[in-house]
Amino acid sequence: MRYVALLRGVNVSGKNKLPMALLREALKATPFCDATTYIQSGNIVFNADLDITTCEQIIADLLKAEFDLNVPVIVREQSAIKDILKVNPFETRTIENSKFMSFGFFDKIPVTEKIDEVMSFSTEIETFKIVDDVMYFYCGVGFGKTKMTNAWFEKKLGVTSPHQSFL
């Protein structure tokens, strides 16, 4: 199975430094095959004959043991990510302004009441849609200016969101 692992908060503003070359080297000691990383994001693509939970635990343990990092890890099948991109509710906006569009995963499905509360913050220029454990976010003010950061969503929804990827 081909997987994508998303790590929260590595190589951001000089914190949780994780050199990708060292990470790739450390991954050679795992049961993963063909592991590659994506730029300095901490995203990992790999093959494994293991379930998602086991893959998440292996990566979390590796990060702690080799790099003294305790960061959230979410693993998804690569095909699931492709499917998520196909159903993007803001597709017409991404064609015009892809730099303002992202999607992210939560570690669990947020409680409906909390989603309803957070939706009250949605505007025409900063809007989002939560589908199960995935959030699509159109941020017309720009990601450097918004107050709706990963940490903001985590606090409001009571979830962990390791990563937002830009479309």
TrEMBL record:
Protein name, entry field: DUF1697 domain-containing protein
Coiled-coil intervals: none
Listed PANTHER family: BLL4334 PROTEIN (PTHR36439), DUF1697 DOMAIN-CONTAINING PROTEIN (PTHR36439:SF1)
Pfam families on file: DUF1697
Organism expressing this protein natively: Nonlabens arenilitoris
InterPro entries tied to this protein: DUF1697 (IPR012545)
